[in-house]
Amino acid sequence: MTDVRAGRIESFIKPLRVVPGGQVNLAEDFAPGHGVGVAKKADGVELLQLGIELLDEYQRRLAAEQTRGVLVCLQALDAGGKDGTIRHVMSGMSPQGVRVANFKVPSAEELDHDYLWRYARRLPRRGEIVIFNRSHYEEVLVVRVHPENLARQRLPGPAEDSGVWKRRYREINAWERYLSDNGFTIVKLFLNLSKEEQRTRFLRRIDVPERNWKFSAADVRERAYWDDYQRAFSHMLNATSTRWAPWYVVPADHKWRARLCAAAVLAHALIDIDPRYPQTSAPARRDLAKAKKDLEKEAPRGAPADPYEASLADRNRKRTKKGGQGKRKQGSVQS
Ligand code: ATP
Ligand code: MG
Asked: Do residue 252 and residue 135 come from a single domain?
C-alpha cells in the first residue's frame, strides 16, 4: 500500500470520525445527506470498486497471518441500508474469512445470561472479519428507548435509577479495550439516515411489489420514537467513541456514498493492521526444495518436470513477444 493511498483514505474518513472525548450532537454535527467530497455517483462506484479490491487483498493477508481479527459493528435505524452495505463491502472477500452475525430480539436463553454474552459468543477468530449486523450497542439503544427490554434482562436491584446506561458505556468501553489489547480491531459504523429518507424508503417498500417483503408495520411504529433514538445515538457516540474503538458516522441518505464510506473505514483499519503473509523460514524452504525435487522426479514421460513453472515461463515468453510487437507497431504508426 502506498502511503499516498493510505493518506487519501485517512483524510477521506477523518470527518466521519467522532473524536474521542468530544461532544457531538447527531442532528447538528452530522448531515445524513453529506456529499463526502464525491459529487458524481459514477466516481463513487469506481472508487468503491477499488476499495473492494483492496479489502480483498488485505483480508487474504489477515487470514494468512492468523494473528489479528476484525469486528465491524454496524448500527442504523430501520431502512438505514445495513444489508446493502454488508453485501457490497463483502462482495470481494472470501466467504471463508468473513462472517455476518445478526442480532435480533434476545431469546430466552440469551436473557438467562449477562447482556454481553450473546455478542461474545460470535466474536471473530484470529484471521477473521466478523460483521455484527446490529451489535452490543442495541443494549444502550433499543433497550434504552424501550426500558421494558431492560426489565426482561432481570438485573439485580433497581437498574434504571442506578445509572445503568453510564455503567453499560463503561463496561462496553472496557470490553472493547480488552479485545483491542488482545489483537482484535473494532470498527464501528453508524449509518446516519434522515427521517425523510426513511419515509421514502418505507414507501418504496410498499410501492414496489418485489420489496413488499422488506416492509414491516413495526418499523413504522418504531419511527414514532425517532427523537428518542436520536438522543440515544448521540449519548452512545459521545460515551463510547474511544481511542481504541472510535465511531464513524456515515451519511446514509445516498446508498452509494454510505457503501463507499463503510468500505473506506474498513480499509483504513486493515491498512493500519498491515497484516503480512507469513515468512517461510530457511529450514521450511529447504523442505520445500526437497519436496519439489521429489515431485519433479514423478513427471510422466514428455511432461515438464514442473508444469506450473513451465506455464509461467511460457506466459512470460508470450508477454515479451507481445511487448516487442507492440513496440514495432507503435514505431510503424509513428513512421
Ligand atoms: P431487517 O429488517 O433489515 O431484516 P433487522 O436488523 O431490522 O433487519 P429485524 O428482525 O427486523 O432485523 O429486527 C430486529 C429487531 O431486534 C430490531 O427491532 C431491534 O431493535 C431488536 N433488537 C436487537 N437487539 C435487541 C435487544 N438487545 N433487545 C431488544 N431488542 C433488540
Ligand atoms: Mg427490521
From this structure: yes
pLDDT, tens only, 189-247: 999 999 999 999 999 999 999 999 999 999 999 999 999 999 999 999 999 999 999 99
Quick one: 321 and 230 in the same domain?
Answer: no
104 lines ligand 1 (CB under 6 A): yes
Q: Determine the structural domain holding residue 304 and report its residue range.
A: 284-334
Q: What is the pTM of this model?
A: 0.91
Residues 215 and 305 in one domain: no
Ion ligand 2: residues, CB within 5 A, are 78
229 and 320 share one domain: no
Whether 90 and 266 have beta carbons less than 8 Å apart is answered as: no
Total structural domains within the chain: 2
Cα(171) to ligand 1 centroid in Å equals 22
* CATH code, domain with 224: 3.40.50.300
Question: Which of 105, 135, 221, 229 to probe ligand 1 with, by most ligand atoms within 8 A of CB?
Answer: 105
Same domain flag for 46 and 104:
yes
Q: State how far the alpha carbon of 138 is from the alpha carbons of 130, 162, 192, 256, in Å.
A: 17, 19, 15, 25
Average pLDDT along the chain: 94
One domain for residues 25 and 74: yes
Which parts of 5-145 are beta strand (E)? 69-76, 98-102, 129-133
pLDDT at 217: 95
316 and 255 in a single domain? The answer is no
Separation of CA 32 and ligand 1 centre (Å): 22
Neighbouring residues of 74: CB distance < 8 A, sequence distance ≥ 6 = 82, 85, 86, 131, 132, 133, 134, 135, 189, 191, 262
Residues of the chain with pLDDT under 50: 329-335
Atom 16, ligand 1: residue with shortest CA distance: 104
pLDDT at 335: 31
